[in-house]
UniProtKB/TrEMBL annotation:
Gene3D superfamilies: Cytochrome c-like domain. Keywords: Heme, Iron, Metal-binding, Oxidoreductase, Peroxidase, Signal. PROSITE patterns: CYTC, PROKAR_LIPOPROTEIN. It is found in: Cell envelope. It comes from the Bacteria. This is Cytochrome c peroxidase. Residues 205-360 form the Cytochrome c domain. GO terms for molecular function: peroxidase activity. Its main location: other. InterPro entries: Cyt_c-like_dom (IPR009056), Cyt_c-like_dom_sf (IPR036909), Cytochrome_c_Peroxidase/MauG (IPR051395), Di-haem_cyt_c_peroxidsae (IPR004852).
Length: 366
């Protein structure tokens, strides 16, 4: 009895020590032990098959945590295999709610990826490791084996304890990545807009005009809302809903050349977005409204990277229905009420872009 009680005490102490390590902040990075471990995993190029690609390849800080090469779609670890969608930013994803149907607004909300197919950061972090178009590992066991050989594995054991199996180790891996994705480093709220809201700087005349157009004439704030998120306490510039903007199929999408069996339709591929996740044709062609934070860094734009610049996509929003564009990739569910004929002048488009540029993190107030 005494031995059992003593064992429980020792075990409890070990758990407390592990939690203490997980909560301690590294004085150089400002990250907790667990967040720092997640960052090491996030940037580890040895975790792909073949080696050479990490999570950070498609989600790097210099590009607002989007593709380091600003590609239409990202090439996987195996050369010639491209994903079918533009890499979304991983910044501020910790505030996206699980996919659900909002009865009051009669719309779907939340879920990660463009199509809402998973509900947690841990689930999201797991998928690229074994996706043959991304990091290309055969299975979770292969990933676990690579992490066991990594220099930071001792840190993982110190934080989580020795994993009992490859499955439990893989859970630790995705949990650590999720911790990093929840960190202040990936969610800094350090833009000029944030400094302006805090009274630390002023917007220029053009930026202020752009904000007013964003709210009113441009109708941008209908989906990229300006109300603070309840959990973040800050504006995320998205309501996490889904929409079909009428974006055409991108003829330059390298996924079209990705071979069978990864792409069985070639250039005839039609991305159904949320409709594919829900197996519901009324939601086909709709994609989640992304945050606009760091939008000036995350070109190209649209789920298929159709637009090279902010100027191009803002102009499309403005004149889609009054200028010549190719047919939408999926026409049946296109939003015809909130874009397409906004009547913005060229100067007004430029003002909106000037405002969007205030959403880039890393601003230093004078």
């Amino acid at each position: 009895m005494h031995s059992f009680r003593k064992t429980k005490q020792i075990t409890g102490m070990m758990v407390c020590v592990a939690l203490l390590f997980a909560c301690q902040l590294d004085k150089h990075t400002g990250l907790s032990e667990k967040e720092l471990l997640g960052k090491k995993i996030f940037f580890d190029e040895n975790l792909s098959e073949p080696v050479g690609e990490s999570c950070a390849t498609c989600h790097t800080a210099e590009k607002g945590f989007a593709d380091i090469y600003s590609r239409i779609t990202s090439e996987g670890a195996v050369k010639g295999r491209f994903s079918n969608r533009n890499s979304m930013t991983s910044a501020y994803t910790c505030y996206i709610p699980p996919l659900h149907y909002n009865e009051e607004d009669e719309t779907y909300v939340g879920g990660l990826f463009w199509d809402g197919r998973v509900n947690t950061l841990e689930e999201q972090a797991a998928q690229p490791f074994t996706n043959p178009l991304e990091m290309g590992n055969h299975d979770n066991v292969m990933v676990a084996g690579k992490v066991r050989r990594a220099g930071y594995y001792r840190d993982l054991v110190r934080i989580y304890g020795e994993p009992a199996s490859d499955d439990s180790l893989f859970s630790c891996i995705t949990n650590a990545i999720a911790a990093y994705e929840r960190s202040a480093e990936m969610n800094p709220f350090s833009s000029k807009y944030d400094a302006w809201q805090a009274g630390k700087c002023e917007l220029t005349t053009q930026e202020q005009q752009g904000l007013e157009l964003f709210k009113e004439k441009g109708l941008c704030a209908e989906c990229h809302i300006l109300e603070p998120d309840e959990r973040a306490g800050k504006v995320l510039f998205t309501d996490h809903t889904y929409d079909n903007l009428g974006i055409p199929s991108n003829p330059d999408n390298p996924f079209f050349a990705t071979p069978f069996p990864y792409n069985s339709c070639g250039r005839d591929t039609v991305d159904l977005g949320l409709g594919s996740t829900l197996r519901n044709s009324t939601e086909a062609g709709k994609f989640r409204v992304p945050t606009l934070r760091n939008i000036a860094l995350t070109a190209p734009y649209g789920h298929n990277g159709y637009f090279d610049t902010l100027e191009e996509i803002i102009h499309f929003y403005n004149v889609r229905d009054v200028e010549e564009y190719p047919q939408p990739e999926f026409a049946a569910t296109v939003n015809k009420e909130e874009l397409g004929n906004l009547g913005l002048t060229q100067d007004e488009e430029a003002a909106i872009i000037a405002f969007l540029s205030t959403l880039t993190d890393g601003y230093q107030a004078d």
